[in-house]
Amino acid sequence: MTPHVEPDPQAGAAVKAADRAHVFHSWSAQGLIDPLAVAGAGGSYFWDYDGNRYLDFTSGLVYTNIGYQHPRVVEAIREQAGRLATFAPAFAVDVRSEAARLIAERTPGDLDKIFFTNGGAEAVENAVRMARLHTGRAKVLSAYRSYHGATSTAINLTGDPRRWPSDTGSAGVVHFWAPFLYRSPFYSSNQAEESARALQHLEDTIAFEGPQTVAAIVLETIPGTAGIMTPPPGYLAGVREICDRYGIVFVLDEVMAGFGRTGAWFAAEHYGVVPDLMTFAKGVNSGYVPLGGVAISAEIAATFEKRPYPGGLTYSGHPLACAAAVATIRVMEDEKVVEHAAHIGETVLGPGLRELAERHPSVGEVRGLGAFWALDLVRDRETREPLVPYNASGEAAAPMAAFGAACKKNGLWPFINMNRTHAVPACNITEAEAKEGLAALDAALTVADEYTV
């Protein structure tokens, strides 16, 4: 692996020592982690102080949709900082208005009003607040196998184990099973059956909870960290119909799936649905400066035409973040990043990952689209037993740890969650880089294969 800078282990040691002394890391037992000291990044790669370079198949946390250090975005941030580095959200600021306009142009339907937040969790938090105020109802439904953020409401909406330590049990959230044919909770044998049974389950849940009590249904259009389970045909349209029938607000969480990740500006385009509220963050400016938001339908926006909306953030629509968003969207348009993500998914990542599945018994299923893919790793293809147990840690997670170590040894930084590895590189990754990543996965999967039966 060729580094982009001269190795400087002493500098790396100093960075790591300062980190260990003062930085409190998220989602971690502080004494059990050993963060890599990063010296720099560019495009689809980053490198450490020891001279090791890694192809980033995580896009940071699935947000560097145009890669690291894109010069046009860096320059836009620099120019904005020199012109107007910050200003309070109650004022009309040119770059804030332009960011909102560019986002609204790309959202589906009449989602033309944009409420800016600092990230995805706050976007979900405010979308739920809007839905509750709009309907006068308190209860919100969300799916198991989901992640919506770590603020109070968002973490209670979340359907994976990260919710458990913070679950108040009284946050007005009810979870249900969304479709997932490979591990179907409905014993379905095909996608049509899975869609129909999942919709019936959702409707039954609403019936027993009381339709008049339900403010919103919140779904990731395509669940991200939970496994990149693309919904079966007809499912999201069916949810839309159920929401319309009962006067429930339909919220789509596009924090991870939006802004080109799936080969469309928003994943909802693949399914022909328009939600009432849509959350976004991450790829809106490739994560260069924290930014998120809620795209709001005309009907819900009208609720707050004469009635104040009781919510806001000091840095809502921060000029530096909005400048990064404007530049990122223009880069994506000019460089056809969305089209490229669709192309690389159809011609390289999808076929390449499926070819790996044919040769490696540890791969149970490949699923995804665009630059948004998951490999479901198993001990036994026949039984579909996961390679590691649900929410495994320590020794129980050793097979995935060994797989991850093998990826890094081959110059690939993997995205690993439970028994899955996700292939979620920058949406503008080149064909050569994508093939480099597939080759590294191929080598690492031989390690995972050793744990199969």
Would you kindly provide a written description of the structure presented here, covering whatever features stand out?
This protein has helices at 9-22, 59-62, 71-83, 94-106, 120-135, 152-157, 191-209, 235-246, 268-271, 298-303, 319-334, 337-359, 398-409, 431-449; strands at residues 38-42, 45-48, 53-56, 113-117, 139-143, 173-176, 214-220, 249-253, 277-280, 292-296, 363-369, 372-380, 385-386, 412-413, 415-417, 420-423. The longest helix has 23 residues, at 337-359. It contains 14 helices and 16 strands. The two termini are 34 Å apart. It is 39% helix and 17% strand. With 453 residues, the chain is an alpha/beta fold. Helix 3 runs antiparallel to helix 11.
